[in-house]
Inverse folding.
C-alpha cells in the first residue's frame, strides 16, 4: 500500500504486507500512540476501495482526506492512495496483480485507476466484488463498527452477510440487470411514443405514395393510349395528305396535257381556215363561238374557283375534332337519298348521259365517305352549321346565271354552225371535225380542271385536320410530336384503335388532374419516415427481447443467490455457534432467518410512505429467501437470548465470534481490523489473537491494535509515530528477524 498526501501521511509512505515464515497470509500489526495516525491506514484502504461516506472516513468534506499542513510543513495539493493486490485465487479476473489507485485534487477533480488505466468507480467496485472484497462490510472493520453488527436491523445484517456469503458480484449483476431493464423499459416507452407519433404521418404519406403509384399506372396507360391514338390519327392524316396531293398532282398534269392538245387543235384549225377562206357569215359565227367559248371557260373557271373558295372556307371553319350534329347527319343522309334518286332517273332514260352518271356517282362516293368519317366521332345533339358568305353566294349565283346564259348562246351558235356546216359540209368538213375535236378537248380540260379543284378542296380539308391535330397534340402530348412517324408506322401493324379511345383519353386525363402532382420532397419524406419507422420498430422488438433476456438472467441470478445464501447461512450459523462457545467457554448462539411480511397490493397509482411507488420485490424473478437475519446469543449460566441484554464485553465477544465465523465461512483475501479488540480483557484478547492466527491461513489480517497478545501473533509490526510537523511516519519490524537475532 502506498500513501501520499492522504490525511497525516504527507510524504510518500509504503506499507508491505508479506507472508509469514510458514507461507501463510499472516498478520500485520500496526501500533502506535493515540493520534499518531495509525487508523488513517485503515481509512486509506477504505478510501481507495471507493468509499463515498465522509462520516466513515471521519471527515466533513472531501478535501479533509488531503494533508492540511502544519506550522512546519505546507499542505499537500492532492491525496493519492494505491493498493496493490496479488491475484492467486480468482482466475476469472484477468490480472495477476491489481493496482487500484484513487487520486483527489483540491479543486475537486478526482479519478480512479486500475493498473494505471483510468476507470469508473463502478469498475473498481465490480472488480473488488469479483475478488471477494467489499469496502463497506467486514473487509474493513473500523473502530465502533464491531458493535454495530449487533445493534443493526435484520435487513442491515442481511446486507452485511450477503457480502460475507460472496453474493456481492451476483447482486451487483442483478442490480445492473435491473437498471438495464429500467433503462430498456424507458427506452421502449420513448420508442413506442415515437412510433405512435410517426405512424399517423407515415399513414398519410403512404396514402400519398399509393396515389403516386396509381398516377404512374394512369400515366403509363395514358401514354400508351396517346401513342396509339395519335399514331392512328397521324397515319390517317398523312395518308390522306399524300393521296390527295398525288391526286391533285395528276389532275394538274392532265390539265396541262389537255391544254396542250387544245392549243395544237386551235393552231391546226387556224391554218386550215387561212387555207380555205370562209364566208363572212361563217367567220362571224365562228368568231362569235370563240368569244362565247372563251367567255364560258372564263366563267367556268371563275365558278370553280368560287366553289373551291367556299369549300376551303367551310373546311377551315370546321374544327379538327368538331362533332357532327344530328341535324347535319339527317341533312347529309337526305342529300345521299336525293342523289340516288337522280341517278336512278338518269339510268331510266333511253339515251344515258354517262358524264352525268359519273358525276353523280363521284358525288355519292364523296358524300358517303365524308358522312362516314364524320360519324366516327361522338356528336352532341347541338346543331353546328357553317355560315355561308352572302357575298360569295351572290357572286356564285351571278356567275352561274351568266354561265347558263353563255351556254345557251353557245348552244345557239353551235346550232347555227351545225346548220352552216350542213350547207357547206363538203367544203368545211375538215374544219368542222377540228372544231368538234377542239370542243371535246376543251370539255375534257374543264373536267380535269374540276377534278383539280376538288382535289385542292380535299387537300385543304386534310391540311385543316392536320392543323387541328397538331394543336391537340401540342396541348396534351407535345413529347410525341418528334416521334409521330415511328408511332404511325407502329399503329399500322398494332391492334386497331378502340372505338372509345377519345372518351378513354378524356377519362384518364381527368383522373390525372384529380390525383394531382406529388412533391419530390414528399417522396423523400416518405422514405425517411418509413426508414425511421422500421428502425424504431426494430429497436422496439430488440428492446422487448432484451427485457425478456434480462428477466431470464435475473431469475437465474435470484436462483443462484437463493441457493448460495441458504447454503452459506447454514455454514455461518454452525461456525458462529462454534466460535461463540470458544470465546465464552460455553453458551449457545445462532442465527435466525426473518421472513418477509406479506404485502397487500396497493390500489393502482397509490404511492408508498415517502411518496414513492411501492416496489414489487418479485417483479424480476424469485424474491429473496428471507428479508433479514436475527441474532440470538445465550452466555453460559444465563437464560436470556436477546442481544440487548448482553454486557458491553459480551457484545464485543459476540461480534468478534460472528466476524470470525464469517471469515471461516467465506474468507476474504484480506481483512482490516481497526482496534476491534480494544474492549476485550487480557484473557479474551489471547483467545481473539489465537482465532486470528488460526484464520491467517486463508485471510491476510491488517490489525490496528494496542493489544500485546495480538502483536505477539503478528509476523510484521509497523509502528506509527508523528513528529512536530504533524506528519505520520512508519517504523517496521519483522518479528521473525528479531527472534533470529535473539538466537
Amino acid at each position: 500500500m502506498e500513501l501520499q498526501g492522504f490525511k497525516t501521511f504527507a510524504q510518500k509512505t509504503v506499507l508491505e504486507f508479506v507472508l509469514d515464515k510458514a507461507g501463510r497470509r499472516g498478520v500485520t500489526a500496526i501500533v502506535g500512540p493515540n493520534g499518531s495516525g495509525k487508523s488513517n491506514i485503515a481509512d486509506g484502504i477504505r478510501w481507495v476501495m471507493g468509499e463515498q461516506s465522509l462520516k466513515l472516513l471521519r471527515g466533513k468534506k472531501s478535501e479533509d482526506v488531503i494533508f492540511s499542513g502544519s506550522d512546519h510543513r505546507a499542505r499537500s495539493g492532492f491525496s493519492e492512495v494505491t493498493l496493490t493486490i496479488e491475484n492467486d485465487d480468482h482466475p476469472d479476473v484477468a490480472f495477476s496483480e491489481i493496482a487500484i489507485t484513487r487520486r483527489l485534487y483540491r479543486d475537486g477533480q478526482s479519478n480512479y485507476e486500475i493498473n494505471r488505466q483510468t476507470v469508473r468507480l463502478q469498475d473498481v467496485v465490480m472488480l473488488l466484488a469479483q475478488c471477494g472484497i467489499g469496502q463497506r462490510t467486514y473487509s474493513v472493520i473500523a473502530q465502533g463498527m464491531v458493535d454495530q453488527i449487533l445493534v443493526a436491523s435484520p435487513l442491515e445484517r442481511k446486507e452485511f452477510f450477503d457480502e460475507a456469503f460472496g453474493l456481492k458480484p451476483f447482486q451487483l449483476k442483478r442490480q445492473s440487470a435491473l437498471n438495464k431493464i429500467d433503462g430498456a423499459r424507458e427506452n421502449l416507452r420513448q420508442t413506442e411514443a415515437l412510433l405512435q407519433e410517426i405512424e399517423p404521418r407515415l399513414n398519410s404519406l403512404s396514402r400519398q405514395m399509393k396515389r403516386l403509384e396509381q398516377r404512374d399506372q394512369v400515366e403509363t396507360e395514358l401514354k400508351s393510349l396517346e401513342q396509339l391514338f395519335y399514331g392512328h390519327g397521324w397515319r390517317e392524316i398523312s395518308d390522306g395528305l399524300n393521296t390527295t396531293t398525288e391526286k391533285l398532282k395528276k389532275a394538274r398534269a392532265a390539265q396541262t396535257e389537255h391544254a396542250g392538245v387544245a392549243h395544237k387543235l386551235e393552231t391546226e384549225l387556224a391554218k386550215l381556215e387561212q387555207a380555205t377562206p370562209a364566208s363572212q357569215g361563217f367567220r362571224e359565227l365562228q368568231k362569235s363561238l370563240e368569244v362565247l367559248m372563251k367567255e364560258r371557260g372564263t366563267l367556268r373557271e371563275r365558278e370553280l374557283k368560287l366553289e373551291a373558295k367556299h369549300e376551303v372556307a367551310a373546311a377551315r371553319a370546321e374544327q379538327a375534332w368538331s362533332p357532327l350534329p344530328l341535324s347535319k347527319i339527317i341533312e347529309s343522309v337526305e342529300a345521299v337519298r336525293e342523289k340516288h334518286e337522280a341517278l336512278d332517273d338518269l339510268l331510266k332514260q333511253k339515251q344515258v348521259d354517262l358524264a352525268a352518271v359519273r358525276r353523280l356517282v363521284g358525288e355519292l362516293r364523296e358524300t358517303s365517305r365524308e358522312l362516314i368519317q364524320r360519324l366516327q366521332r361522338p356528336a352532341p345533339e347541338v346543331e353546328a352549321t357553317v355560315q355561308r358568305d352572302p357575298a360569295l353566294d351572290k357572286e356564285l349565283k351571278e356567275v352561274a346565271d351568266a354561265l347558263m346564259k353563255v351556254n345557251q348562246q353557245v348552244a345557239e351558235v353551235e346550232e347555227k354552225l351545225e346548220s352552216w356546216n350542213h350547207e357547206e359540209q363538203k367544203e368545211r368538213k375538215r374544219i368542222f371535225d377540228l372544231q368538234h375535236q377542239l370542243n371535246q378537248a376543251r370539255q375534257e380540260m374543264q373536267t380535269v380542271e374540276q377534278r383539280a379543284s376538288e382535289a385542292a378542296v380535299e387537300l385543304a380539308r386534310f391540311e385543316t385536320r392536320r392543323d387541328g391535330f397538331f394543336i391537340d397534340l401540342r396541348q396534351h402530348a407535345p413529347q410525341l410530336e418528334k416521334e409521330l412517324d415511328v408511332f404511325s408506322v407502329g399503329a399500322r401493324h398494332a391492334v386497331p384503335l378502340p372505338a372509345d379511345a377519345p372518351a378513354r383519353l378524356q377519362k384518364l386525363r381527368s383522373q390525372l388532374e384529380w390525383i394531382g402532382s406529388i412533391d419530390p420532397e414528399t417522396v423523400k419524406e416518405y422514405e425517411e419516415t418509413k426508414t425511421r419507422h422500421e428502425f424504431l420498430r426494430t429497436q422496439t422488438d430488440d428492446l422487448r427481447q432484451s427485457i425478456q433476456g434480462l428477466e431470464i438472467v435475473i431469475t437465474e441470478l435470484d436462483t443462484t443467490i437463493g441457493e448460495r445464501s441458504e447454503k452459506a447461512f447454514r455454514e455461518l450459523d454452525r461456525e458462529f455457534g462454534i466460535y461463540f462457545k470458544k470465546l465464552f467457554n460455553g453458551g449457545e448462539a445462532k442465527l435466525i432467518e426473518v421472513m418477509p411480511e406479506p404485502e397487500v397490493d396497493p390500489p393502482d397509482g397509490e404511492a408508498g410512505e415517502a411518496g414513492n411507488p411501492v416496489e414489487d420485490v418479485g417483479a424480476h424473478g424469485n424474491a429473496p429467501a428471507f428479508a433479514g437475519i436475527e441474532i440470538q446469543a445465550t452466555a453460559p449460566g444465563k437464560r436470556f437470548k436477546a442481544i440487548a441484554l448482553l454486557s458491553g464485553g459480551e457484545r464485543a465477544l459476540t461480534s468478534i465470534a460472528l466476524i470470525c465465523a464469517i471469515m471461516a465461512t467465506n474468507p476474504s483475501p484480506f481483512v482490516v481490523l481497526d482496534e476491534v479488540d480494544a474492549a476485550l480483557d487480557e484473557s479474551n484478547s489471547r483467545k481473539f489473537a489465537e482465532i486470528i492466527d488460526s484464520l491467517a491461513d486463508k485471510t491476510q489480517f491488517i490489525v490496528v491494535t494496542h493489544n500485546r497478545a495480538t502483536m505477539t501473533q503478528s509476523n510484521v509490526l509497523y509502528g506509527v509515530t508523528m513528529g512536530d510537523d504533524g506528519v505520520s511516519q512508519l517504523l517496521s519490524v519483522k518479528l521473525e528477524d528479531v527472534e533470529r537475532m535473539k538466537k
